[in-house]
User: Which sequence fits this backbone?
């Protein structure tokens, strides 16, 4: 994305094994006062929702920030024993489908956390999970900042228009 990538250690929450947070920002990405503290708070809140919802967490949370989008990676997801059993039984697609449906059901909780931390309205949410390697990705599309042009919003991105 042409931004800076930073890996830093966060205090390890009690009873949780993740402690690495990485963030990457495109140039001129978010209105001030967008800070690393906001990114860390967002990572902690989303991980807490994930952990509370699934009973397990992930080894690492990564956040990519663009003008009107936030992409969150939960890397090295911890699976439930029943999910591991299903994968071993050859029905991994059922694990992915169940998690997809659950993410649809809990979407409002994830959206509210992003809106609360960023102060921006979430206009769209998408979620996907993969098993090899095991990770989930959450995409939050944010409402445009009033007064910013489309060129400003997509600075740092390659964007094509149809003629």
Assistant:
């Amino acid at each position: 994305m042409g931004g800076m990538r930073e890996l830093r250690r966060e205090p390890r929450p009690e009873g949780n094994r993740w402690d690495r947070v990485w963030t990457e920002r495109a140039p001129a990405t978010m209105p001030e006062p967008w800070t690393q503290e906001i990114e860390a708070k967002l990572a902690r809140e989303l991980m807490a929702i994930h952990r509370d919802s699934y009973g397990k967490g992930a080894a690492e949370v990564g956040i990519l920030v663009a003008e009107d989008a936030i992409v969150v990676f939960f890397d090295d997801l911890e699976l439930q024993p029943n999910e591991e059993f299903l994968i071993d039984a050859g029905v991994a697609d059922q694990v992915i489908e169940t998690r997809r449906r659950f993410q649809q059901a809990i979407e409002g909780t994830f959206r509210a956390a992003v809106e609360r931390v960023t102060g921006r309205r979430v206009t769209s949410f998408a979620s996907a999970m993969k098993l090899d390697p095991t990770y989930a990705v959450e995409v939050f599309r944010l409402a445009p900042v009033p007064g910013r042009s489309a060129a400003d919003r997509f600075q740092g991105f390659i964007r094509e228009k149809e003629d």
The chain has one domain: 18-149. The two ends are 25 Å apart (CA to CA). The chain is about 35% helix and 30% strand. The mean pLDDT is 78.
